[in-house]
Amino acid sequence: MLEVELCSLKMKNPMMLASGILGSHASSLIRISKHAGAVVAKSVGLEAREGYKNPVVINYAHGLINAVGLSSPGARAFAEKLNSFKTEGRCPLIVSVFASTPEEFASLTSFFPMADAFELNLSCPHAENAGMAVGSNPELVREIVAEVKRSTEKPVFAKLSPNVLDIVEIGKAAEEGGVDAVVAVNTVRGMSIDITSRKPKLSNISGGVSGEAIKPIALKCVWDLYKELEIPVIGVGGITTWKDVVEFILAGATAVQIGSALFYSYRMLYSLMESLRAYTRQTGESLAELVGKAHE
Amino acid sequence: MLEVELCSLKMKNPMMLASGILGSHASSLIRISKHAGAVVAKSVGLEAREGYKNPVVINYAHGLINAVGLSSPGARAFAEKLNSFKTEGRCPLIVSVFASTPEEFASLTSFFPMADAFELNLSCPHAENAGMAVGSNPELVREIVAEVKRSTEKPVFAKLSPNVLDIVEIGKAAEEGGVDAVVAVNTVRGMSIDITSRKPKLSNISGGVSGEAIKPIALKCVWDLYKELEIPVIGVGGITTWKDVVEFILAGATAVQIGSALFYSYRMLYSLMESLRAYTRQTGESLAELVGKAHE
Amino acid sequence: MYCVKVEKVVRHNKDTATLIFDSILPSYPGQFVMLNLFGYEEIPLSLSSPRSITVKAVGETTKALVNVNPGAIVGIKGPSGNPFTPTDTKALLVAGGIGIAPLLYLHDYLIAEGANVHVLYGARTADELVCLERLKSYEVATDDGSKGFYGSVVELAELKPLRKYERIYACGPEPMLRAFHRLLKERRLLDKAEFSLERLMRCGMGVCGSCVLPEGFRVCVEGPVFNAAKLEW
Amino acid sequence: MYCVKVEKVVRHNKDTATLIFDSILPSYPGQFVMLNLFGYEEIPLSLSSPRSITVKAVGETTKALVNVNPGAIVGIKGPSGNPFTPTDTKALLVAGGIGIAPLLYLHDYLIAEGANVHVLYGARTADELVCLERLKSYEVATDDGSKGFYGSVVELAELKPLRKYERIYACGPEPMLRAFHRLLKERRLLDKAEFSLERLMRCGMGVCGSCVLPEGFRVCVEGPVFNAAKLEW
Ligand SMILES: Cc1cc2nc3c(=O)[nH]c(=O)nc-3n(C[C@H](O)[C@H](O)[C@H](O)COP(=O)(O)OP(=O)(O)OC[C@H]3O[C@@H](n4cnc5c(N)ncnc54)[C@H](O)[C@@H]3O)c2cc1C
Ligand SMILES: Cc1cc2nc3c(=O)[nH]c(=O)nc-3n(C[C@H](O)[C@H](O)[C@H](O)COP(=O)(O)OP(=O)(O)OC[C@H]3O[C@@H](n4cnc5c(N)ncnc54)[C@H](O)[C@@H]3O)c2cc1C
Ligand SMILES: Cc1cc2nc3c(=O)[nH]c(=O)nc-3n(C[C@H](O)[C@H](O)[C@H](O)COP(=O)(O)O)c2cc1C
Ligand SMILES: Cc1cc2nc3c(=O)[nH]c(=O)nc-3n(C[C@H](O)[C@H](O)[C@H](O)COP(=O)(O)O)c2cc1C
Ligand code: FES
Ligand code: FES
Questions:
Q1: Is CATH 3.20.20.70 the right assignment for the domain spanning A4-295?
Q2: Helices (H), strands (E): how many in chain C?
Q3: Domains in chain D and their CATH numbers?
Q4: Which residue of A92, A254, B207, C133 is surrounded by the most CB atoms within 10 Å?
Q5: Active-site residue numbers of A?
Q6: How far is C70 from chain B (nearest CA, A)?
Q7: Which pTM was predicted?
Q8: What are residue B238's phi and psi, to 5 degrees?
Q9: What are B139-188's pLDDT values in tens digits?
Q10: Which chains contact C through at least 3 pairs of Cβ atoms less than 8 Å apart?
Q11: Interface confidence: ipTM more than 0.90
Q12: Domain residues of chain B, as ranges?
């Protein structure tokens, strides 16, 4: 009842681990893969990158704000780290890549033979020359996608930012470039100030808001993309309960990603899976049947 | 210690009632004016407008989502309603106006001799031909502001939307047009779906998210506008506690607006005022001294 | 918002019905819900018991509600609003038309509290009087004299020794409530009385301002039940 | 994040100090805080008592911390992480270098619980041994023999009847912990032992993944204290 097929990936349930959450080590990805439909590794670029200084993540009553700054060991070193997922992982592995140019994006795919699909980070809101900086220009998005598609046979997903005037415009550009699915959304620009020290709480001053606060914002993006695109939409942003999963599916998400909710527990996906199983048993419908139902 | 002067308006504290919250009747505006630095009336257009069907507001654990749809009795009727504020109001009255063209905007000001200032709604995310629909185009924003400024001697504020790629670009356009202050932000696009009925909860399908959820998003806008503009910034979005007020002031807000928090209590502004008084007594600094301090 | 199922529909006459839900809504008499009949509008309705509403068809949504089939799912926000202040002594309930709805709940509640409850209930015709079987002690008035007192419920009330009652509760169309307010004022009984008012409601949660009274109160939060003395009528 | 004031700074030697806060942080021994010295980095530090940290200067932030002035305001996230499992019987604490910090807190806590506590504490030189005056029963080891046993603290431990202790707690540099792990494994005592580990931490709240061990555990959530038997060393 929970199984989903997404661009040829067979997933045991529609829940994927979102990029950047516990995705820097094969060991945590393997652990989470036990109950995930798929896992997305932390975004990786060609070269090693330090990321911002601590503090890079803060939590508030309604979610998290992070400015990790795409820290990563670089493609070669990360590929080595991920190798053990091939034998021990229990679900498809999606490798998230960031870069500044179409060529650079395309050059990344060959490093990761263990990947079952690629996710293009066109949406990190707090990185220079990467993420949103390249992902808010529809022309560039189309080119990036097209170039990456030429470099690999595997499915390619484009992860979009909500920090644009019209996310559908970017989604359409990705679709025209030949992308297999869109992922909506990455974090929403935001920040927080400590009133005692009178300083921004993040070393980078601002970052991206994730978690429950952004759920209605992400849901609206999924709704709009589902309406206007032909390709599948993967919903992400604030999903914390099984009801949230259903809400995103009804809005049009074929699959969902879960990030910040792991804050509450490593076993999050397991308990969501159990609840979703109970739900489908009760309604008698598979989750796949519910995709986009709220549009009817 | 709490007094603020904003574009020649003398305010007993930096807290203004945000537009659209309890702002359709003089009686509620008068009641709130007792403890507010200023009040902004519900946005009004030239003609009467029904707004959307109920449900128009929903609440979730982290804020509200509304699609009232700029319902209003039209300029003439509303001006009559507001008349009694002149004698009974206890703070400056700001009239918020929406329209589709610069000329229409400008024509509205003459209806409201009781207004101490005007706020231009360039940012409602769920209205056709008004709000964001006109407020996301920098050229048009510049023209609207210029035209309105020609129509009145009173201070004019431009209320901006966070649903754009670059709010500073719009803020600068308003500044170039001659606006006296910018107000950031209006609500963030969002929606919610009821999983039992499998329908969007709002009659308009989507609406604008307000309340605590959007505080970090609004704060980032205020921070960026303060950095790049010369004119005062009025901060709004999710302010619920006195600490939030201080946080916005540190980020660069000369004054703040409070909307959704009135959900908790009509006496919200009173209790915030008392807390802010205690805070300034403790630190020995006036709130006006703190504006933008977190940038240092 | 959450959903409840309509378990049973009791038709009282051609345009009034009581809808009984499949679950109890924790509430006090006088509180209302914002009820969303999907595909129609979300409207405010007083609870006529902890698990029912009693609704009169006056427009599109109420018409659809009165004709709803058992099993229908409706969205609910609330119960919310200020309830009636209960008493365990002598209470008079004064209802006009569908204003009986919240008073039905109050009636049962006060009797359970051990109060001595009497109801004055007016309508245009006998046919419009509903749920009389639920009332322990009542007198009715009809505009056309088709049942009970010939005249309005306020005229009926004028004949009564109102001072005898510890508390007086009223709900009905605003002209009726205003007339009753005048009567209570003359008799200096405003303090003892609570009125349940109606206003156009949009949000039902105290933010939009559409239900605000000239006194500055919100019907959805400070009301719908107000002490009659607070109303500047 | 919230802020606390550094009330007092106790310098132990040229690069180690204890910072005492103006308020108690509700916590258990073994838990850590993410401490933000504004202008520097936010770093993980174990509590050395409910209101202090004991820190050794190894880089920019720790250097600045050791030299901080009383009155300084620092940002705190936590206390968080898995604490040591307490005991009220016989306990052995094995510290290497600044690894003494969480064990100081544990030492006081176990004694208050009525446990019989003995400490083995190693460092490079006598000068690096701190807070000895807080320890009730201890033996020290130095790499250069400048005080106590001449050798490493693990070599010292090897000479001890470890089986006598109900629980064994260790904290120190990873090579030391790995050597001690081997020793405990040989003696089949891994089950009785808990180790406090360090890893580069970014978020300190279980989401970023930078502190994850090859076993899949997060040092910031499932750790920093782990049962030694769970470590695949
Ligand atoms: C606190 C409160 C409690 C109420 N309790 C009950 C009750 O228990 N039973 C009952 O039958 N009715 C009750 N009402 C009235 C009920 O809400 C309206 O009859 C209903 O909203 C009309 O909706 P409609 O779509 O059927 O009619 P419409 O076509 O919208 O309008 C028909 C008539 O109803 C009036 N009306 C429309 N919307 C509202 C509104 N939101 N509030 C008040 N009047 C409105 C209009 O002015 C018009 O005269 C209550 C109203 C309030 C404010
Ligand atoms: C759970 C935990 C508890 C700790 N408790 C204490 C304590 O009580 N007292 C104490 O003095 N130290 C403790 N540490 C170590 C302390 O966090 C590091 O010494 C500190 O982060 C170094 O920061 P720096 O800027 O001074 O040095 P840097 O210039 O950043 O680095 C100096 C050295 O410290 C290492 N290091 C840097 N960052 C970290 C990090 N986040 N975690 C671990 N090692 C790091 C580097 O690899 C390098 O060798 C603890 C670490 C962890 C993970
Ligand atoms: C600490 C942290 C790090 C993240 N790193 C990345 C990243 O490297 N690449 C990426 O595409 N998204 C990254 N994200 C965004 C998430 O993948 C996700 O889109 C976002 O957090 C919203 O989902 P959530 O509310 O379930 O967390 C990160 C989020 C967090 C909180
Ligand atoms: C019910 C409701 C109605 C609103 N109506 C208006 C409006 O008419 N004009 C306007 O400029 N903003 C309107 N807003 C936006 C608020 O003024 C404010 O910008 C926003 O809610 C964020 O502030 P808050 O989080 O304090 O509510 C409305 C908000 C709500 C919740
Ligand atoms: S209905 Fe919105 S304030 Fe009462
Ligand atoms: S430090 Fe981020 S998961 Fe542990």
A1: yes
A2: 4, 13
A3: 2-79 (2.40.30.10), 90-230 (3.40.50.80)
A4: B207
A5: 124
A6: 16
A7: 0.94
A8: 80, 5
A9: 999 999 999 999 999 999 999 999 999 999 999 999 999 999 999 999 99
A10: B
A11: yes
A12: 4-295
